[in-house]
Input
Amino acid sequence: MPGRSIKSVLRAERLAARDALDVAERVEKSLLLASHGMGAIDLDGPTVVSGFLPIRSEVDVRPLMDLLEDRGARICVPVVLDKQTIVFREFVHGAELVSGVFGTVGPGPEAVELDPQIMLVPLAAFDARGHRIGYGGGYYDRAIHRLQQKGINPRLIGIAFDCQEVASVPDEPHDIRLHGILTESGLRDLSDEAIAKIG
Output
């Protein structure tokens, strides 16, 4: 089966598993994830962190965003501009949110655009090597590439529930590996330095 077909099957399976979690369980697991992330994510001075506002059955990462903001992080969230592009706009409590595509909401065009140094990345599925399956639009891959062209190499932390893990994600040369995966069980550091220590 071609890599894309395998990814489609894995995406559907893991999203179904995520959808099967009841609301109370998702809330509990999201709070556990926030608690682990609060202690495990290093902020080196004032740091720009991109989170996201949850849609469908995604992890609710807002409690973690609040905790990181309390520690001095500047928070931004993705806003879809068109079929190719997302930008990251500052997320300020109390500011009006506007409707976007795919059922998303986000800060309006008056909000400041920021370049994240740490990205909390939503995903459909992941494996132990740090490879992810997104939702199929390639928005994050393109956004990360644009940041890298500007000389910014953000730390990429996948956000998911444990039930979204798969044995192996088919990866292609252009795929960008995550530096860590944060679930309700804790943060797995998948940076090259951490893997070298384990090896």
